[in-house]
Design brief:
With 134 residues, the chain is mostly helical. Helix content is 48%, strand content 0%. The radius of gyration is 22 Å and the shape is globular.
């Protein structure tokens, strides 16, 4: 008892669709909100000086959202950043990435990201590694 070509085709299509549904359901949770793309951008644009879990040239970024500006204990911040005050919010991080010297002239970080979509992705990633956002 063999299957007709049409029946085999329908079975193949059904299996392919089922596989696609399983693939989409199994995607990492960050795929929809940009955290995966944000992580990639973070690695290329930020990781030269920063790390999520360790202070390097710049301070660590774990839990940056909701943290006081210049708030990592023991990190030697510039006077410009120390006097900025406030808390890192997603909007404030976007402003920072848009032009560090415009926001805090004299700070040690020199970065200007003109693309708002790239800034949004990096901020989404930083939110994903911050307790205040989970």
């Amino acid at each position: 008892m063999g299957l007709s070509l049409a029946a085999a085709s329908r079975i193949g299509t059904a299996l392919s669709m089922g596989g696609a549904i399983l693939f989409l359901a199994a995607r990492p949770s960050g795929a929809a909100d940009g955290t995966a793309a944000g992580r990639t951008l973070y690695q290329s644009r930020c990781a030269g000086c920063h790390s999520v879990d360790a202070d390097r040239i710049g301070p660590r970024h774990r839990d940056v959202v909701g943290r006081a500006v210049a708030g990592v204990p023991g990190y030697a911040y510039s006077p410009a950043l120390k006097t900025l005050g406030g808390v890192w919010t997603p909007a404030r991080l976007d402003q920072w990435l848009a032009g560090t010297q415009k926001m805090a002239p004299g700070s040690r970080m020199y970065l200007k990201m003109d693309d708002p979509a790239e800034r949004k992705l990096i901020v989404a990633y930083l939110r994903s590694v911050s307790k205040a956002e989970k």
